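Two proteins follow. First one:
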Amino acid sequence: VFALSILIARELIDDRATLLQEVMAGPIHDIGKLCVPPAILTKKTALTPSEIVHLRHHALAGYVLLTYFFGEHEILAARVARDHHERKDGSGYPLGNPIDNLMIDIIMVSDIYDALISPRPYRPVAYDNRTALEEITHQAVTGGISKTVTRVLISLNRRAKPHYSSCTLSSERRGLPPKDNVYGSKSEDSDDHA
């Protein structure tokens, strides 16, 4: 996520001093996962509703940890930890706030891309690159994530590396999610804490 965030930020942020300051927030965006039990992080089946709540808490936990560490509640690293699962249209979590911050957008898209193309306990096979890009493009077209950042990601994935402004976002899908993918599905088990 950090390396991809740097590559994307280099395309969108001209001032190198600002770039350095901004990208330093990337490596610790998921620090709140320290507060999530390993059994939830490594679970191979669908999460129960209370496990989903516990997992989603990592965003606020990261914000609290970083604001305490830095002694500053508005520091970018803490805001990135809190907001990297929010969405531009307000459909994300933990607070459901619409996001309009370039660096958070960059880390948000990088995090989604990494989650799709990397092996995960809940998915025996990662998304292939094309299908991952199609999923991210769908999220951009429907208003959840930044269209500009998505165009940069697509540009970086093209052999010719065209300027991102020349990349168009198509809603056409040719790929399929990996077989036995349980990400985003809820367990049928009863859960008294949901």
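Second one, unrelated to the first:
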Amino acid sequence: MSSTAFTVIGHRGARGHAPENTLLGIDTGIALGAPWVEFDVQLHPSGALLVFHDLTLDRTTNGSGFLADQPLAALRALDAGAGQIIPTLQEVLDLVDQRVGVNIELKSAGGTAEAVAAVIRSYVGAGWPVDKFLVSSFHLPELWEFKQLVPEIPIGALLCGVPLDWAGCALELGAATLNLSSEFVDPRLIADAHAHGIKVYVYTVNDVAEMRLLRGMGVDGVFTDHPDRALALC
């Protein structure tokens, strides 16, 4: 990951400025200066890896129902905001073209790790540095599987709570980062992660005062819908 003291990660591209998880959203995050962009990936029954957050289409597209129930061609015909389509993982990586780091969040299980690992292997083989990738998930068994398949790619353990063993799960996974909800930032958790060489990134932080507070607590970076705000602090 970044060697800077405070890493700014554009959340779903730059959700505060452009439709989330779209090519426009990703490109906007890059244009705003974010050194990293984060986006979500689901494995569709067709085998396509789609960049999409929700299980259902209603919130972010002009479609409805469950994403997994719709044919791929129908999904690709939807408007995901501002005339954008639902992109594939490969389309996003081609757009990024090594300009920034990418945090790929595995939203689905049941083969997602294997499929994403295969794509990343091909991009590394084509010249992408391994440190341009961070793969994260709340589904820790899926993240574990990914790490076994491509151990050279850094992973991040996503948490929405404070575990009894502090950063133990991230340590057991061999994670480079612990990606923590802003509701559960605990100085003892930060200290334990740092004691084991694990960075702490906090999601989703849009308030500048909160960004300053977290930085003062020793957090290593934030996921934000407004990367321009966080970058102003760096």
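SUMMARY FIELD: The chain has a mean pLDDT of 97. Residues 165 and 189 are 9 Å apart (CA to CA).
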